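User:
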Amino acid sequence: MTDSRPIIWPTAPIATERLVLRQSGPQDRAMTIELNASPEVTAYLGGPQPREELERKVPEVPGRRPGFFVAELDGAAIGTISLDPHDERPGHIRPDIGNTELAYLFLPRVWGQGYAAEACAAALAWFAGELPGEAVVLRTQTANEASMRLAARVGFTEVERFQDYGAEQWFGVWTPAQRPGTPGPFTPGS
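Assistant: Predicted structure:
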């Protein structure tokens, strides 16, 4: 599917307090393979993919598309953030709420230090500047407690829970007017 959102891309790198979010390059291929081959990273995403398969299918420059960022810490790539068209991702789709979905993957060695939340907040702020007033959705398994905490920390509000992929899933929304810790306009079952 072609991305029809009016997003200016590539964007200039985005600097946060500790990170830089930038467009991907050939140097990010090994990290992309590591993320998708990691049992820890993919525990709630269907499990790891075989490294040999990833070596064959990951392009020379992974994630070269609008809304895809590599998160860098002190010059080293530590994860990815994407704001992709919501209907490109399989599973539960609610275009009545938002047409863009936030997704992120970070290397296990940097977990628990707030980097994912910092990067997601910066990517959402960038997105709000590109498409003012547009909502962003996020899906995660309710068993993924770290992802649930991150969603709340960056300001997502629960819309509903549903069963998919053999587990309970959480579906939330973020709007540019929302700030972390404030209730949004949606309630479960809306």
